[in-house]
Amino acid sequence: MAASERRRIGVMGGTFDPIHHGHLVAASEVQSWFDLDEVIFVPTGQPWQKADRTVSPPEDRYLMTVIATAANPRFQVSRVDIERHGPTYTIDTLRDLSAQHPDADLYFITGADAMAAILTWRDHDELFDLAHFVGCTRPGHEMDEKTLEGLPADRVTLVEIPALAISSTDCRQRVQKGEPVWYLVPDGVVQYIGKHRLYHSKDSA
Ligand SMILES: Nc1ncnc2c1ncn2[C@@H]1O[C@H](COP(=O)(O)OP(=O)(O)OP(=O)(O)O)[C@@H](O)[C@H]1O
Ligand SMILES: O=C(O)c1ccc[n+]([C@@H]2O[C@H](COP(=O)([O-])O)[C@@H](O)[C@H]2O)c1
């Protein structure tokens, strides 16, 4: 198959605890920038670099991701990471998705903070053989030439996206304090959080 006939698939990996509009805007901007056929959101199973904190059950994070992406025909959600046993490594995510989509080139989407940490990821040398990496700007996280040090320049692109100073940590803390998360996360995700009492303090009504 000629390179021009190959499909282009974005891969948006994340803990998504909860998914918020920063994630959705990053995926949408990269879809448009690279004219991707689709973007597959991949909620992590066990995010090993977040082992020091409590993470919501994978099924809750998966369902919130499905709800948040349902309206966009180019967005899909994969269970590959939540169904694999053990810690989640992107090298496994990309191997699984490559096997499922042998006719596609993969574009792994990250924010500036994740891009700056890629050299700490398992088998990072091999990651760039399996996907092109796209780093999106994120408020509060520098992304410049230093971010690219040690990375293969032809396999990494930095993209400026509209700045949304939203984090899952802030969303969780807001719910815990009884503050609103309306318009930080999609409406259906606000409702899911309320219905399943995610992030609420134990003594809240
Ligand atoms: N506001 C944002 N703008 C751009 N990229 C973002 C934004 N929020 C998250 N990302 C990127 O999305 C991916 C998944 O992020 P993750 O699910 O860990 O969300 P988070 O808001 O960083 O969570 P937490 O606050 O719990 O660490 C990462 O690559 C991260 O850099
Ligand atoms: O492969 C690794 O070692 C690795 C280490 C940290 C994070 N990642 C991936 O980076 C993505 C964003 O992770 P996080 O922790 O910021 O939600 C998600 O797909 C993770 O699986 C991957």
UniProtKB/TrEMBL annotation:
Which Pfam families does the entry mention? Answer: CTP_transf_like
Show the catalytic activity. Answer: nicotinate beta-D-ribonucleotide + ATP + H(+) = deamido-NAD(+) + diphosphate
User: Which SUPFAM superfamilies does this one have?
Assistant: Nucleotidylyl transferase
Record GO terms (molecular function): ATP binding; nicotinate-nucleotide adenylyltransferase activity
Keywords from the UniProt entry: ATP-binding, NAD, Nucleotide-binding, Nucleotidyltransferase, Pyridine nucleotide biosynthesis, Transferase
Which positions fall inside the Cytidyltransferase-like domain? 11-174
GO BP annotations listed: NAD+ biosynthetic process
CDD domains tied to this protein? NMNAT (cd02165)
The pathway where this protein functions is: Cofactor biosynthesis; NAD(+) biosynthesis; deamido-NAD(+) from nicotinate D-ribonucleotide: step 1/1
The EC code for this enzyme is 2.7.7.18
Q: Does the keyword Translocase apply?
A: no
Q: Return the InterPro entries for the record.
A: Cyt_trans-like, NadD/NMNAT, Rossmann-like_a/b/a_fold
Which family does this protein fall into?
Answer: Belongs to the NadD family.
Q: Function, please?
A: Catalyzes the reversible adenylation of nicotinate mononucleotide (NaMN) to nicotinic acid adenine dinucleotide (NaAD).
Designated name of the protein: Probable nicotinate-nucleotide adenylyltransferase
